[in-house]
Amino acid sequence: MEGAVRRTRRRGAGGGGPRYNLLVPRSHCPHCNTPLRIADNIPLVSWLVLRGRCGHCGTKISARYPVVEALTAALSAVVAYKFGFTTTTLLALVLTWTLVALTFIDADTTLLPDDLTLPLLWLGLGANVMGTFVPLSDAVIGAIAGYLVLWSIYWLFKLTTGKEGMGYGDFKLLAALGAWMGWKALLPIVLLSSLVGAVVGIVLIVLARRGREIPIPFGPYLAAAGFIVLLAGDTLTRWFVPL
Question: Which of 32, 130, 156, 170 has the most CB atoms around its CB within 10 Å?
Fold first, then answer.
């Protein structure tokens, strides 16, 4: 089961600080720190077989793990249905899985690790060398524009208020999405993510009484918007970019 507890080393959200390591330490029980066997890491199956408990110390393991695994499986099925039995499906699945991982890492730590965002960017450009999703020129412009859009907003906000409104990882994630789906997808992605983020932020402040000074990660909204545009990009692009 995906019971990995990774050592949180900061990098990607604010540009500096130690690295977020995705490889070590290996997956282990958060209570007894015993490394998990391969049989304990089978999505959904291991959690059900172990009845939601560590096979070594018996500590209850959060149902979040099978929920995330089930969500990933459902999204993968949608992607496979959308693109069929093609190489495009394999590439879209890699994008989907990475977006899921980034969503929950950012939600937990307010980090978007370079180890995921940067390879995702380069893979998007590589996928479009043959125009798999968009022409290569659109992908290159999308990557450049995606980074510069949020970079500009970041500095405008910082110069105006003296505060940082978002992290560098957000720039890189939008650049990666631009590399996969082209520059025309950027406007729908930014608008959708901003709208959902604003609504969720207001709800958290009003209902959960979350202080305005507590940062709300933007990565999950970018990832969700990117996935939506991956599936319905042509329709959304015609709405937002009629020219």
Answer: 170
